[in-house]
Specification:
The structure is a single chain. The protein is an alpha/beta fold and about 240 residues long. Helices cover about 45% and strands about 15% of the residues. It has ten helices and eight strands. It has helices at about 10-20, 25-35, 55-65, 80-90, 115-130, 145-150, 160-165, 170-190, 220-230, 230-244; strands at about 5-10, 40-45, 70-75, 95, 135-140, 155-160, 190-195, 215. Helix 3 runs parallel beside helix 4 and helix 9 (about 220-230) packs across helix 10 (about 230-244).
């Protein structure tokens, strides 16, 4: 199967916000990502709006519909009523629910199931009722995949941080095997599989042959683009996906 590449443009928004104006322009970045080979766009609004602002979400959604029909928008967010209302107002192709710890630098853990099951079920049902494909951010623990399926979710997004950090170390084999076990457990539970966090052009190779629907990559794309430009950075990821 072919794995789609969704580019997370949060870091473009973070750079824009640091200056207080509209440079770099987020929609220009979206256009360039797609022209360079990205399959979709991801945004992750947070309540502190430190990168993607609430107003960016409908702007990106409208831009995609007008200029890139058929390109999927994935909105990652916590299960907070204000953010769920934002998602429902926009109607993206996919919403990825991500647990948030106040003060965290970035997402660093998946949902705690079955503890958070009852809180998630009605939110997932509401999103699916509105025609939004649902995904949930999960730690790479195979026995959690069946529990995720019990919430009614469509997909899981595997948290690949530990896998990415282990790449090139003695732990690489162990973490790669955990990814494989999780993917097969998720598929066996009837779920689609996404993956994301610190993936790059090199460590994508460890996902070779796995039935992963989509990878979401943002930080590496922008940091790599500082040296080689955004089109080349995305081309390197496309090459990595072909190898995987």
């Amino acid at each position: 199967m072919s794995t789609a590449l969704s580019v997370n443009v949060n870091k473009v928004a973070l750079l824009r916000n640091s200056r207080g104006r509209d440079v770099p322009n987020l929609l220009d970045a979206v256009d360039l990502c797609l022209a360079s080979g990205a399959d979709g766009i991801t945004v992750h609004p947070r309540r502190d709006q430190r990168h993607i602002r609430f107003a960016d979400v409908p702007a990106v959604a409208a831009h995609l519909r007008a200029h890139h029909p058929g390109v999927e928008l994935n909105v990652e967010c916590e299960a907070h009523p204000d953010l769920i209302d934002l998602v429902l107002s926009v109607g993206p192709a996919q919403c990825t629910l991500v647990p948030v710890t106040p003060g965290e630098v970035t997402s660093d853990h998946g949902w705690d199931l079955p503890h958070e099951h009852d809180a998630l079920v009605p939110i997932i049902a509401t999103l699916k009722g509105a025609g939004v494909r649902t995904s949930m951010f999960m730690d790479c623990e195979p026995d959690q995949m069946a529990l995720a399926a019990e919430t009614g979710i469509d997909r899981v997004e595997l948290y690949t941080g530990p896998y990415a950090w282990a790449w090139g170390t003695p732990d690489q084999g162990r973490e790669t095997e955990k990814i494989a076990q999780c993917v097969h457990a998720a598929v066996g539970a009837g779920l689609g599989v996404n993956a994301g966090h610190d993936l790059d052009a090199d460590n994508l190779a460890g996902l070779r042959g796995l039935p992963i629907d989509e990878v979401s990559i943002g930080h590496w794309v922008i940091t790599r683009a500082l040296w080689v430009g955004l089109p080349q950075a995305i081309a390197e990821l496309r090459a990595g996906l072909k190898a995987s």
